[in-house]
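Question:
When you can, review this sequence-structure pair and walk me through the tokens.
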Amino acid sequence: MSTNGNLGDTLTLQLVKTGPITAGGTFMGEIANIALDTTKFYVIQIAGSIPINPTIPTCTATAPPVSLGVATIGTTLRNVGDMSPAQSFNVTLVCSGGAAGITTNLYATLTDQTNPGNTSNQLSLTPSSIASGVQIQVLNGATILGYGPDSNAVGNTNQWLIQSGVGNTTLTLPLSARYIQTATHPTPGSANGTATMTLSYQ
């Protein structure tokens, strides 16, 4: 720490944790001053920087294969945009390794493994699928989730918040999936999709 002035005192800077730490960062620059009107005549500033590197929890996600059942062409699926009934499934997130009292904001991105460049909200069918003219939607409540690059970067395309303030805990994330008709004349057969989930701690 350095000062710009001549008060002749030795100052001690003490950092006090006042709430959950959700991300790392640095303290730097001016932290206090004494001024008359708008003219500063004594400035206290940090020489260099003080890094804050909390040990945040990280999470392991597991999810079962999801069976979407049978969507019958001509009854369940008649027109483009028709959807089959959604089937529920849970993703389990086991979060551990964080320092006591340290939390993080947990985000996720789904990536289409058949078409990694897909940024829509419809999951592509795998090459081994026989059906055509249908795709898959994954929902978080009433929200249809989109797809993005396999990246944990802040603000990644179609990244979404799972939960704020996550510590060392186990979370159950309820999702659902359904078929959606995407062509006027779909063909029947197996219709499978594969997606991965990338977590981001912010």
Observations:
- The mean pLDDT is 86.
- The chain has no helices and eleven strands.
- The radius of gyration is 26 Å.
- The first strand starts at residue 2 and ends at 4.
